[in-house]
Description:
CATH topology: Rossmann fold
Structural class: alpha/beta
Low-confidence stretches: none
Number of helices: 10
Number of strands: 6
Helix content: 40-55%
Strand order of the largest sheet: 2-1-3-4-5-6
Oligomer: single chain
CATH architecture: 3-Layer(aba) Sandwich
Shape: globular
Amino acid sequence: MGPIRAxxxxxxxxxxxxxxxxxxxxxxxxxxxxxxDLELYAEDxxxxxxxxxxxxxxxxxxxxxxxxxxxxxxxYSAGGAAALAFAAKHPDRLLSLALLEPAWAxxxxxxxxxxxxxxxxxxxxxxxxxxxxxAFARLGxxxxxxxxxxxxxxxxxxxxxxxxxxxxxxxxxxxDLERGLLAAFSRPVFFALGGHxxxxxxxxxxxxxxxxxxxxxHLEVFPRCHHFDPPHRIEPERxxxxxRRHWGQAESSGS
Length: 255
């Protein structure tokens, strides 16, 4: 068995290197882990024709440039949504999938509580700029979680992040994540869930994906974490061990 090859997609907030630096160190030399930035931020301005398909094409280019015919894909938040879309369209390229609280998982018959959360996300774009990020962050966690305010002024790399988050929210409203294709994905799926994250959002996604779509699904709860203090930053050593085990078992199970 050769080295483990994995592509890691970040959320819409942090650059990939900042999001995954500690996790990649914890994974060790036996894992060839690539922290790939989102295509949404590839240029100074956000592309007008961007969608989740743009992110899918970017993952394909990254893998092809490295000569990786098959690989493991992991994604957090917005990157997790892109990873789900990739798994639906290119299951033959993946050895496994790891989802770190994906920000979205399609528009289907979700629970009433989840539907209410999505409605609140859709209403965020109407808020004044200074209220957008705090309101967005509040939706991702339990009511008793204290979230520090965003830095003021925003660092230079973060200036276009609110617009990027809004771009993801808009594409979530229109993107066709084909249910049949996703349900046909048979490779192992790992899901990391923060104990202080919004259960009506990420908890509901985990429950639905495990019951409706993926036959080989493993859920791990990180009690101290939430969506903005995620496991790859708060508990990188623990998550690294779980991912190495997940990826190793996926490769041992064959195609």
